[in-house]
Amino acid sequence: VQLQASGGGLVQTGGSLRLSCAASGTIYSTDAMGWYRQVPGKQREVVATILSGGTARYADSVKGRATISRDNSKSMLYLQMNSLRPEDTAVYYCNVGRTFVSGRYDYWGQGTQVTVSS
User: What is each CA distance from 53 to 3, 24, 30, 118, in whole angstroms?
Assistant: First the structure.
């Protein structure tokens, strides 16, 4: 599975962005999908995850401002971010987590830069 994230950019505080992630290859309904972000010098952190049944979880820092969604038929993952803050500035990565008999394997996209100006 190859992942291509897009939709990042420069936005002012309070603005919105919709990130998209296109997967080449089949996305199974059992795959976990998610968005993570990373700033230089810090560990990558989870932003939001969504399971096959649509169960979504959000980092406390984005709760109420972010909505994650997936379209398995189109092999797409989305993240709608509203009320953006400067601390949301990061490279955002999409992720597919697939469970095999041997364990979980994570696929990562190349990332898309989100910059929120104050």
Answer: 21, 21, 9, 37
CA pair distance 13, 45, nearest whole angstrom: 21
Which residues, at least 6 apart from 53, have a Cβ–Cβ distance to it below 8 Å?
Answer: none
SS3 labels along the chain: CEEEEECCEEEECCCCEEEEEEEECCCCCCCEEEEEEECCCCCCEEEEEECCCCCEEECCCCCCCEEEEEEHHHCEEEEEECCCCHHHCEEEEEEEEEEECCEEEEEECCCEEEEEEC
Please tell me the distance from the alpha carbon of residue 103 to that of residue 99, in angstroms, as a whole number.
Answer: 6
Tell me how crowded residue 107 is: count the other CB atoms within 10 A of its CB.
17
User: Residues 14-53: pLDDT tens digits?
Assistant: 999 999 999 998 888 889 999 999 999 999 999 999 997 8
pLDDT, tens digit, 9 for 90 and up, residues 57-101: 999 999 999 999 999 889 999 999 999 999 999 999 999 999 999
